[in-house]
Write the structure tokens for this entry.
Amino acid sequence: MSLDRRPRAPFVTVGLVVLVVTALTVIQVRSQAEVARSLSGQDNASLAFLIDDLHSSNDQLAQEEQTLAGQRDALRSGGASVVDAQLSAEAQRLRIIEGLEPVTGPGVTISVDAPLNEIDLQDAVNNLRNGGAEAIIVAGRRVVTGSVIRRLGDGLEIDGQPAEGPWTFSAVGDPAQLAAAADLMTRSLRADPRVRSAGYLLSPALTLTATLRLRPFVYALSQ
Amino acid sequence: MLTRMGWYPVVALTALAFGFFFATQLRSQLIPPSNQVARNQALVSTVQRLERDNAGSRARIGQLRGEVADLEKVAAQRSDSSQRLAGEVADLRAHAGLTRVHGPGETVLIGNGKPNPSAPAGTAYLVDVQDVQDVVNLLYQGGAEAVSVNGRRISPGSRIQGSGGAVVIDQDPPLQAPFQVAAVGNRAQMEALLAEPASLGDLKRRQRDYNLQVSWQGAGDLSLPASDATLAVSYAHVP
């Protein structure tokens, strides 16, 4: 017995419905499984960058651990002269970090002729800091994270002292990183219509003066 | 011999098999290959391991700094010069964010908003590193003596960087919104500055346009942790 033509339409309909429903179900289930497995949904390139940054950070932390362990061991076993030498070195290191000592070292000076505002100055300081700067001077004023750059009337001030252009930003730190940061910063500045000129000069031995003073705490108490 | 009704299950089963076949073929082209997913999982595992190592290192640094400070206190009793130097170092460490501090303060909370269909498309509804930097700068401007972001203490040498919604402070793993920027200092001065319409202009505008979360609260006694990041000086030295 052969099949006549009439029943074919229901067969085709049933077949198509089952096929589509099955396909959609499988796709949906597998899609959800894949999303769950990708965890935060970050792509591999972002994860690779994050791994690179974490490796670099962890290396720096390991170095700090090593330095601190050395200091601890010297304090445990050393005599008075060793202790005093270590305390003096630590005081000097902290004074450099807090902008209280003049410093010298490889660095860069960026010169900008433009009517920059307080945001521009803050951005420049952030870019230099993130570009490996260990000490920074803006318009003759030493700045650290926490220095106050603000507008006052028509002018700008840095930590309460007036500052004006043409602007110079000098930084001592990792010369390769600083060169890259300075290059990027001056390119970006030259694209700004307010900027008349922007350039930078690398130096193997740049000296930065110390203009900051330790501000005694009034509200913060050490625990 | 099959009846007409008998053919339905045969057709359905055949379609079912073809459905699986087509779906598998389609998915194999639409989703990343399984080795790509495996690579993603391996990378995620590596990130998690490195973050654990990072936390472990920072905890050991905190412990070592405590041990060194205790030994310095003991050593300081040996001579007047040691005592003077130890006092100076303790004061410098406090200003460098290396000791835990407490006092009156202000905590600023900033969190992501929502996309606004009537505003230009983009990521303006998300809090970014510039927003965090602006709040930190404003609190220092208001006289903050110590500042932390999501429990990470800011030091004079701190680097605050990031991209997208991630904010990286020194050697820490990336932080995500919401951000709590806490500061110990003159509460009245910080609150007055935060309330000024011109302060944090961009954040406040996006608070209106995108419902970004921007709020602050004072506290009589706020406690900030010590920095557990590195404060290395490798290139700068005293002339």
The first helix of chain B runs from residue 7 to 30. Chain B touches chain A through 104 residues (CB under 8 Å). The CA atoms of residues 103 and 222 of chain B lie 5 Å apart. The longest strand of chain B covers residues 213-224.
